Amino acid sequence: MNHHEVRKEILSLVKEYYKDKFAPEPFVPGKSLVRYAGRVFDEKELVNLVDSSLDFWLTAGQHAEAFENEFADFLGVEDCILVNSGSSANLVAMSALTSPKLGDRQLKPGDEVITVASGFPTTVAPIVQNGLIPAFIDVALETYNAIPELIEKAVSKKTKAIFMAHTLGNPFDLRVVMDIARKYDLWVVEDNCDALGSEYDGKYTGAFGDLATFSFYPAHHITMGEGGAVVTSNPELARIARSFRDWGRDCYCAAGEDNTCGIRFTQQFGKLPVGYDHKFVYSHIGYNLKATDMQAAVGRAQLKKLPGFIRKRRENFQLLYDGLSRHEGRLILPKAAEHSKPSWFGFLITVGKGEAFSRTELSRYLNDNNIHTRNLFAGNLLRQPAFMNISHRVVGNLTNTDYIMNNTVFIGVYPGLGAEEISYVVDKMDSFLEKAPVKQQHYAGAKEA
Predict the structure, then answer these.
(1) Is 372 designated active site?
(2) Cα 229 from Cα 117, distance rounded (Å)
(3) CB 375 within 8 A of CB 408
(4) Inter-residue contact 446 to 143 (CB < 8 Å)
(5) Domains in the chain, please, with CATH?
(6) Active-site pick, 220, 221, 327, 392
(7) Has residue 443 got a pLDDT over 50?
(8) Closest C-alpha to 169, from 343, 327, 324
(9) Environment class of residue 410 by beta-carbon count within 10 Å: exposed (0-12), middle (13-18) or buried (19+)?
(10) How far apart are the first and last CA of the chain?
(11) Is 201 in contact with 339 (CB distance < 8 Å)?
(12) Are 321 and 423 in contact (CB under 8 A)?
């Protein structure tokens, strides 16, 4: 057989391998794990991965370029920059705003960025890593996003940007954020790593801000294993973001291409000699944060499944909400933000004020019954060892952030869960709450714990 025939045979065998290796197992209540997240894939991802590997193109190539175009089309934005993780996407996005190419709007050390302390550390870490000052505001219970009326109160003469995540798929108040950004000429970066497919005012989140970020880690809405993306509809920001991703180089030629601009050897930069090869001119202190073509090949297969994944996440969320709504009061259940249609990452549960049981007791009980739980990531970042001594400003207090740190947990809604698993979770929650002692005082409002 020639190599074309061998390749066809290999891919045929890959399909057979998938059917045998990854055959689904029936759910057995109490024995099967109810995961908080996980990969959902079929033979198409495996075939794409192996097919790409046979080309032995080990860096970003045709699949990476195709994924960038397809992902941007899905979101309705102009540009997508593929990177190796969602955390790298956050680093690239925030670093891009420090570029001297932005003139008067360049972020400089000491400038402030409005954000929240309740969330994942790599939303805030790039602010600190770039010498900027995070200005923290509290979040509302039920939505777990920034309290809208605190956002404008946080604006100071040093404020240059707003950078926040749509918490577990629930959009923050984009109407308020975008109005404030326009009023004070602020950059907006949406951390959309947990919210791919969420909608606000009928438009996908990630398409509102100047920049937005995504993660393709296995726990997220689609996966490449590792992987992430920065998206924008601003061509200047797109070029700057690519520069930071690609070693800080000034050249924008794609891999394997030369002299796209037609003036490779005729320009002068910095104190370099006139005509210095543009491929080796560096305009930023950058990184190498590219993904591989094999990862992108997997991502392309996942992207085709995304609409179905989104529907399933919403269905599972609603099943959990309907099943647990009888306990509202004892539990604080999540609520979709006004004007939004979330693509939920998980189902957040907060122990009601005054309850005699703790979040730890609930988590231990669920995990003992093979139901995975996760805290809302770092809790209050300012209480984490790495962030305790950073330069920062707090506007008002972080009362709800601390309450979430002590009382909140989330469980899964990912597409690998079906009605059987959700019903089992609801039954176990019922059993726990039937036995848990009750106190008189209950949670009574969304804005203060």
Answers:
(1) no
(2) 23
(3) yes
(4) yes
(5) 53-294 (3.40.640.10), 306-435 (3.90.1150.10)
(6) 220
(7) no
(8) 343
(9) buried
(10) 70
(11) yes
(12) no
Residue with tokens 């008189």: 440
| Six-digit token string for 390 | 């950073």
Could you report the per-residue pLDDT of 289-335, keeping only the tens digit for each? Answer: 999 999 999 999 999 999 999 999 999 999 999 999 999 999 999 99
pTM given for the model: 0.95
For 390-412, write each residue's pLDDT tens digit. 999 999 999 999 999 999 999 99
Tokens 């909140």 found at: 408
Cα–Cα distance for residue pair 136/395, rounded to 1 Å = 6
Which pLDDT belongs to residue 257? 79
Rounded CA separation 106/93 (Å): 13
211-215 and 187-191 strand pairing? parallel
Half-sphere exposure of 85 (CA within 13 A, CB side): 9
Q: Give the CB-side neighbour count of residue 241, counting CA atoms within 13 A.
A: 27
Q: How many residues does the chain have?
A: 449
Instruction: Look up tokens 């989104």; give the residue.
Output: 310
Query: Taking a C-beta distance cutoff of 8 angstroms, is the pair 69, 80 a contact?
Result: yes
CB 330 within 8 A of CB 247: no
Secondary structure in 3-state letters for the chain: CCHHHHHHHHHHHHHHHHHHHCCCCCCCCCCCCECCCCCCCCHHHHHHHHHHHHHCCCCCCHHHHHHHHHHHHHHCCCEEEEECEHHHHHHHHHHHCCCHHHHHHCCCCCCEEEEECECCHHHHHHHHHCCCEEEEECECCCCCCECHHHHHHCCCCCEEEEEEECHHHCCCCHHHHHHHHHHHCCEEEEECCCCCCCEECCEECCCCCCEEEEECCCCCCCCCCCEEEEEECCHHHHHHHHHHHECCECCCCCCCCCCCCCCCCCCCCCCCCCCCCHHHCECCCCCECCCCHHHHHHHHHHHHHHHHHHHHHHHHHHHHHHHHHHHECCEECCCCCCCEECCCCEEEEEECCCCCCCHHHHHHHHHHCCECCECCCCCEHHHCCCCCCCCCEECCCCHHHHHHHHHEEEEECCCCCCHHHHHHHHHHHHHHHHHCCCCCCCCCCCCCC
